[in-house]
Amino acid sequence: MEVLFKTIFGSQLYGTNTPNSDVDYKGVFLPNLKDVLVGKAKLDSSVNTSNKEDLSAKSGAGVVETEMYPLQKFVKLVMDGQTVSIDMLFAPKEYWVEFNPEWEYIHSIRHQFLSKNIRAFVGYCRTQAAKYGIKGSRLNCADKFVKFLKGVDQDAVLGVYVEDLKPLVDDNSILHIEDEQHLSYLDVCGKKFLFSTKVKHNLPSLEKFLENYGARARMAANDDGVDFKAVSHAFRAAYEVKELVETHDLKFPLKDSQFLLDVKTHKYVYLDIAPKLEDLVDEVTELVKNSDLPDKPPVDHEALILKFYNLV
Q: Average of pLDDT values for 188-214?
């Protein structure tokens, strides 16, 4: 394997490692040209190694894990704005443990790989923010519509109560009078209820929504089932996006490493930090959308790959 680059990664890079942390390395290698040409090279998958005897066991102190990406795979990831590749690209030289001098060229143009594709970071953050519950405001919104609908004629169509529903509408609900398909409906937390349908057919669906998310909220209130390591990763990704958009750069260890470590080690109650994460996700979503970053990286990625094979 011709190694182009290998760096310390994970918590050791972010500054969130603890005495129980494992050691992660990630890198890039150049597949053999002959293997590429004859179709033997596996260009879509990485090569993983570990000193764990049981690979399914949880990692911890003393465990060393390495993941190496084919250059072709790495370039695709970084062009797509994927978190792992951006972190590798911006890893400082003092964290490098092995590199080919030609890799310094890629590192020197790392800023050219930044684009609005870093919204991929945001997707992960948003998924994590919604995993253990929803904003209290959304829960309250669903609750007030359930209470209203329970108190009206169950055999009446929803549209009869348009004027009564209007005062209940807030940021988490919409009263829509005819869309492009000439349908009128009530939208509560993303769930649509047609005005032409009976109350009794809509109420169970809304109650189920409230029950499911209410259960999640209660679990989160007790920190039951909350993966704080995953939550810290969501915060990390969001902070990275913010720094990338605002400075077009990314410094390691991360400037928010202490807060991230505190989240990771469960020094916060989830409900105390959930609104912060939700607001941060909303903030970085708008930052990416309104940023001066190009829609896609202005890099000829094919020529870049060929350069490493001395074909250009």
A: 87
